[in-house]
Amino acid sequence: MITTRTAVPVRSRTAPRTASTSTSAPVPLTATARIARRQLNLATRHQLTTEAGVPGATLSSRTRAGGPWQRLLPRVYLLQTGPPDQRQHALAAVLYAADPATDPLSGDTAALTGGAALALLGIRDAPCLPADVLVRSPRRLARTARVRPLSTCRWPRTIAVSGVPSTRAVRAAADFAARAQDPDRIRSTLAQVVQAGWCHPQDLYAELRAARLLTRPAVRAAAAELLAGVRSPAEARARDVLTATDLPTPFWNARLHTPDGAFLASPDAYWPDEGVALEIDSAEYHYTRDAWHATLRRRLRLEAHGILVVSATPSMVRDTPAEVLGALRTLLALAATRPAPPAVLARGHVQPQLPMPRE
User: Fold this and answer.
1) What is the pLDDT of residue 348?
2) How far apart are the C-alpha atoms of 102 and 339, rounded to whole Å?
């Protein structure tokens, strides 16, 4: 976040301090300024005309071309001349959908959800537009180019994310999955939500089931991968490749420890009986020398404890899976000739059987 500093006038050391300087009180904020400060420089028409007493004619004049205010959405205004940022766009959607008679920041009548809410949490693949906003059923609102109101009977607990009333990540992820069409986008976004620590795979599975989304093949497949321990699209693709072979089922993202409890690493896939690991290293996360050195040190720790490592990039798994499988077969066969697997404790995941929910 970029921090800006406000210039403070410097008083001359020789200038005498007057009584007015020491006793002056801060100028009270106008009603409009109070609303703007509380709502990221945003206000609704109801707030401006009813709470702040701004005449309708004044509102119209200030939002004309070149004026100091801007109309972002029907009945929602930006009280500044500069362009809105992502947070302001998100809050404007909530202000548009909230009941005018309530506090829009309470999260009681409108809350950001879906991709827009996930984007505020830093999920890279989540789409910001149109912004999905929950409203309590049976209340309904017209959709705009930037806002998609979603009427719901299952009102969730809400939180404030960067000043914007939002659903928790687990509900936002489910609402995103309900409307996404691209299976890869669903897989990637849900994986990022779990990998970032915003929710547990079991909680996400429960939310998807409550929303009756597990009947959709793409959502069900993504949920199964997350419960199995898969945490990225590259790992999911590797799991698809391995599932189609006769190779043993590995642990995904298992946490490996020495017998005395010291943490070693968490490889993408690990075969505990053989002591073989698969590491899928993307160049995207190794632009810096420190990141690359950290990857090499992790591999050295694994190899120092007798673990055989196959390293591959996501493109290798996608374009030349036979080469990756060949390397894994070789190391798994080599490991079988050892008298005992490495003395490493693996706390990992196994593939659960998911019951098909009824319609």
Assistant:
1) 60
2) 71
pTM: 0.71
- Euclidean distance between CA atoms 336 and 274, whole angstroms: 6
Which strands sit side by side in the sheet containing 255-257, from one edge to the other?
263-265, 255-257, 345-347
The mean pLDDT of 307-329, rounded to a whole number, is 93
Distance of CA 33 to the CA centre of its chain: 32
Cβ pair 132, 112 in contact under 8 A: yes
**DSSP string covering 277-330:** EEEE--GGG--SHHHHHHHHHHHHHHHHTT-EEEEE-HHHHHH-HHHHHHHHHH
CA–CA distance, 78 with 71 (Å, rounded to integer): 6
How far apart are the C-alpha atoms of 93 and 116, rounded to whole Å? Answer: 10
CA distance readout (Å), 304 to 121, 256, 279, 298:
38, 13, 16, 10
8 Å CB contact between 69 and 78: yes
